[in-house]
């Protein structure tokens, strides 16, 4: 099953506040908004994917708490991208200097920026092509490093600015490179 995209009339555009209200009254749904104004309803994940995502977030949290170079976020965090889309990566991170320039009010709402780092973990309900398109959208909006992790295929696609995506088959770990200095993601529990 893939995400359900609701096509809306072209004249119907949501303000940030209206989209937040829609999300608030539909808390049982995980919603995103495309740059074209389409509502995307994301399917909940199963137990294996939830556990993999928890492991990924735990490793990112530990590195971030030891280095304090930025702020890390889970899959419930919305980012209002420069192209107008509101997206929620499975895991993400923003450099401290970018976080620090946000106002208190901006920090309470969907963050008005693209994360510096984002991960999409492909679940049984995800369409891989849709997930790849989302990673390219992040990249076009300022992403510095992105990982698309497909546990079923034991495949990783790495996204970097001004480079073709790099495909890795069965890697045991991933480096945060210069974006997340010193961060090494152990893929063994994610691929198990």
UniProtKB/TrEMBL annotation:
Signal peptide: none annotated. Residues 17-187 form the Putative restriction endonuclease domain. The keyword Hydrolase applies. InterPro entries: Nuclease_put_TT1808, Restrct_endonuc-II-like, Uma2. Keywords: Endonuclease, Hydrolase, Nuclease. It comes from the Bacteria. SUPFAM superfamilies: Restriction endonuclease-like. One of its GO terms (molecular function) is endonuclease activity. This is Uma2 family endonuclease. It comes from Nostoc parmelioides FACHB-3921.
């Amino acid at each position: 099953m893939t995400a359900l995209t609701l096509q809306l009339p072209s004249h119907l555009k949501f303000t940030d506040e209206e989209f937040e209200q829609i999300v608030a009254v539909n808390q049982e749904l995980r919603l995103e908004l495309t740059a074209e104004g389409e509502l995307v309803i994301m399917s909940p994940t199963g137990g294996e994917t939830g556990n993999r995502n928890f492991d990924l977030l735990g490793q990112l949290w530990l590195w971030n708490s030891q280095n304090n170079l930025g702020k890390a976020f889970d899959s419930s965090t919305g980012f209002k991208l420069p192209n107008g889309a509101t997206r929620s990566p499975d895991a993400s991170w923003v450099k401290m200097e970018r976080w620090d320039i946000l106002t208190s009010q901006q920090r309470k709402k969907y963050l008005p920026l693209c994360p510096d780092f984002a991960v999409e973990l492909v679940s049984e309900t995800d369409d891989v092509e849709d997930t790849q398109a989302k990673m390219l959208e992040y990249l076009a909006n300022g992403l510095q490093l992105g990982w698309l992790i497909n546990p079923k295929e034991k495949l990783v696609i790495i996204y970097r600015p001004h480079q073709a995506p790099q495909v890795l088959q069965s890697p045991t770990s991933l480096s945060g490179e210069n974006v997340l200095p010193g961060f090494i993601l152990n893929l063994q529990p994610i691929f198990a």
